[in-house]
Amino acid sequence: MNEREQQIAEELAAAARARTHVDAIQHEIHEINVELSGLFQLQRTLRGQLAQTTDPAERARLTAEIDSAGGRSNDISGEMKEAHNEIAELTNLAELHEAKARQLQESVTETDH
């Protein structure tokens, strides 16, 4: 393998690594969505229980749990935003490496003719 072919292989490998990371992050996003859905369901359930109880201690406990689930939901939403930003960056990086590989391949093809 000559130097140019080695460069092409390295660029394509870098692009593949970036795409693999994108796939992993997309899986993480799916898991985050599942957790977020569970938290929303928990909040609905707790609000229903809160509406049915008059005991002050139980109401305080339920309110604290609702607030805790809401805080976790906000944290998870922030994680999801970060994950989407990382996907955009990695996708751009993969496209950059793919373009560089194409450019190198075209220069090899031009010098062959």
Write the layout of secondary structure elements.
Blueprint: H1 3-52, H2 56-112
Q: What is shown here, in short?
A:
This protein has 113 residues and is mostly helical. It has two helices and no strands. The longest helix is centred in the last third of the chain and has 57 residues.
Q: Can you offer a commentary on this structure?
A:
The chain has helices spanning 3-52, 56-112. It is an all-alpha fold and 113 residues long. The relative contact order is 0.17.
**CA-based shape:** rod-shaped
* Radius of gyration, CA atoms, in whole angstroms: 25 Å
How many helical stretches?
Answer: 2
Note poorly predicted spans: none
Helix percentage range: over 70%
What pattern of helices and strands is seen along the backbone?
A: HH
Major β-sheet profile = none
In terms of structural class, how would the helical and strand content be classed? mainly alpha
List descriptors.
mainly alpha; 113 residues
